[in-house]
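Course assignment 3, question 2. Fill in each field.
Student: A.L.
Task: Predict the tertiary structure for the chain below.
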Amino acid sequence: MSDVADQAGVTKAVLYYYYASKAELFLRSLLYVMEIARQRTVAILESSEPLLSRLEKLTRTRLSIDVTLDMNVIMRGSEEILSPEQLGELRSAEERLVEVLANAFEEEMRAGSIRKASPEFIARAFLSLLVIGRGEMERLGATADVQAITDEVVSLLWYGLRDH
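Answer field:
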């Protein structure tokens, strides 16, 4: 907490006034990042471009950020320090992001642009592909090509494994 207070330019007392514990500060920080990710996802998905273009932009944006939102990793690492209620808040934040994506997929299904399937499943598959893409970016380091990995992630989702 001392390091956080120093970086924020406040005293530890001020930090503890707003956050009762390290766990609370950790949770609020994660929730903030997840809300920003959700808002940026909404902004990209609300554009009038075709869904494929929006997914490419969203993927490129997410892969360009040095932070992963792999909820499996976050939840595993958080189970020991967060209360069940706090873990529930994290799951709710994840569900809000899934809902935004699922709505976009559902809209495309209604328009007949993509095949009918569970929009929530597709949203979760997309988020999983983003995690894999982020891992590939980390594996390749300085030689990583964001556009090439974006193309791989989006084409796997959009076209599946069919040979075109």
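Instructor remarks: The longest helix spans residues 84-111. The mean pLDDT is 89.
Grade: pending
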